[in-house]
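This follows on from our talk about sequence and fold. Please put the record directly below this note.
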Amino acid sequence: MLDHDPTFEGFMDDQHGIRRGARRCAQAVNALHSIPYFTSDLATELAPFGITDHSSVYLAGRASPLGSVNAVVVTAVFSSFAPGLIAERIPALWELISPARAIQARQDAVATALERLLGTETVQSAALAEAAKLATAAAAACAPAGRPVYAANSALDLPDRPHVALWHAATMLREYRGDGHIAVLGHFELTGVDSLVIDCASSHGMAKEIVMPMRGWTEAEWSAGRERLTDRGLMDPQGRLTARGVAVRDEVEAETGRLDRQPYEALGPADVDRLGRYVRELVGTAADAGVFPPPLRDFFAPTADAWNAL
């Protein structure tokens, strides 16, 4: 069984504590979802189909539940990726592999990667099986309206291997939050690149040198986003966030969290706490095995103090 830490009981009693517990759990499941994209296992599964570059591997894995959609659709629902990067690969990917076969490839890659990183004993444990049930229950409580990537993943069959089922549920939870985040960005009239520029300029984001090429944006596109934000008073001419820029970023994050409350309210504070802490331990084990590059380790596997401060 997953252990319950009694020191969290008072903390989880109030609404603020519940929101913090949900943020922590969301951070942990997002990190678990990300693991296969930092291993070679998915690339190994896709290589026989002629899919070899990292961005194509990523898109084949993450976009496959949407079916054989075109580049415009993938660009719309992923938002933070440059349209050019996606158009170079979609729909050409679906001429190399069917979405159904890509889904199977990602499940096989997840099974291999998690067992190697976490150990056979862990992936076969009762604790992991229970975590998979909790995460699946939370994901099943989400309403699909307005959540296209979540809905596409929720329509897939539930994997029968518990560690793959846990990853699948984590993916649904991550995509549910991501769909809501894109809706919030639209409300604040922020494009995908605008949101990345703001995040990289904040004290919470990753470095531009990592994010910009990873998402496929050119220097000119990035500069245009920065200029838009400067014109709106969200950045200063030196590329620093203004007080209003900091406030807008905080508002975006708060509203994203508000729209992400459904699965965690359904699960309840005690189980959210248990699930979040257990998944964080799994991610920490994977991080200790070297799955995340050094610049990204603290982002996906924050220290205990950083995680408790979420």
